[in-house]
Specification:
- It is a single chain.
- The chain is of the alpha+beta class.
- It has two domains: about 35 residues; about 100 residues, Immunoglobulin-like (Sandwich).
- The protein contains two helices and six strands, in the order ααββββββ.
- The strands form two sheets. The protein has a three-stranded antiparallel sheet with strand order 1-2-5. The protein has a three-stranded antiparallel sheet with strand order 4-3-6, with no helix packed on it.
- Strand 3 and strand 4 form a beta hairpin.
- It is rod-shaped, with a radius of gyration of 28 Å.
Length: about 160
């Protein structure tokens, strides 16, 4: 009888250890899921879950570029301006691209710049987009440029 009692005690102890291990694993998985889920700290409404990247929803992002000046030297092309966030979301890592064209409308060079600040709603940020690689290009051929936002993140 003592033998059977020990077997049942061991089985009962094993069940308790197993339940304890399952409880600890469940809590760890739930905490890890909450910690690593990028949407866990955000309230998502009105389809905003699809608008984490600028390229997915440029109209909703409502980012406006304003070019204030351009400077040309023999080795550099610089565009100064500001970008305004008229939308309702924060935007990070905004990447701007400038394309340079000659008088025939042919593409001659491009350059990019990343704004590393967070652009909150109803704020603006100045930027300087510099094409120092233009030393390889004859800027005498330059006639026009196009500056655009090519990416941004709303994490």
């Amino acid at each position: 009888m003592n033998f059977i009692k020990r077997i049942f005690n061991r089985i009962f102890d094993g069940i308790l250890y197993g339940l304890g291990l399952c409880l600890v694993l469940t809590v760890a998985i739930v905490m890890a899921d909450h910690y690593y889920d990028p949407t866990s700290n955000y309230e998502i409404t009105d389809g905003a879950e699809d608008c984490r990247r600028y390229k997915d929803c440029p109209e909703e992002a409502d980012l406006e570029l304003n070019i204030t000046s351009e400077k040309i030297s023999e080795t550099d092309f610089i565009v100064l301006g500001n970008i305004k966030n008229s939308g309702s979301m924060d935007w990070d890592n905004i990447m701007l691209k400038a394309e340079l064209f000659n008088s025939r409308g042919e593409f001659i060079e491009e350059c990019t710049e990343i704004l590393d600040a967070t652009l909150k709603p109803d704020t603006s940020q100045n930027f300087k987009l510099s094409c120092s690689s233009c030393a390889k290009v004859n800027l005498e051929d330059y006639a026009s440029h196009k500056v655009e936002i090519i990416s941004a993140n709303n994490w």
